[in-house]
Amino acid sequence: xxxxxxxxxxxxxxxxxxxxxxxxxxxxxxxxxxxxxxxxxxxxxxxxxxxxxxxxxxxxxxxxxxxxxxxxxxxxxxxxxxxxxxxxxxxxxxxxxxxxxxxxxxxxxxxxxxxxxxxxxxxxxxxxxxxxxxxxxxxxxxxxxxxxxxxxxxxxxxxxxxxxxxxxxxxxxxxxxxxxxxxxxxxxxxxxxxxxxxxxxxx
Length: 203
What we know:
Blueprint: H1 10-33, E1 40-45, E2 51-56, H2 59-62, H3 64-84, H4 96-132, H5 140-162, E3 175-176, E4 180-181, E5 190-192, E6 199-201
Antiparallel strand pairs: 1-2, 3-4, 5-6
Helix pairs in contact: 1-3, 1-4, 3-4, 4-5
């Protein structure tokens, strides 16, 4: 039987497992804190982190950060699976496009982990704010900037690892509008551009 996907890297698997653990930990913290939360919760904050909007406590409302985490995991995970999708993937583990797909999928899952962790921090900070009646949400903007910086770092590192692919022999029937590669017989999702300077997709 032909494999339908390239194998994920060890870092991809570790990041996916860590993402699951963070989501479970966030849900556990919120569920444990729920009975001690006040009936009226600050749920909106201005740029300085001072609350300016309140709503009544309900379980779905308190668990919103977990819902956001699950959506992030689902969306980014689906993208990673799409990037790894390739007929005969396991048979061509050393193929340049398989390595490129592995690097790209790893970056996507790492970025997902970064923002799932950020949502976990936000959930923990909100729970502490609600319980202690603090007036501000501490370090939220700093954490957001740190998540953005980490995401950029992951993307830059992935770009470096992708490298410059070897150009393929030009076949006119495989290119649409001069730059869009489309070849149903080619199992690769990632292919070199016509000039070989970067990667493009097999549409």
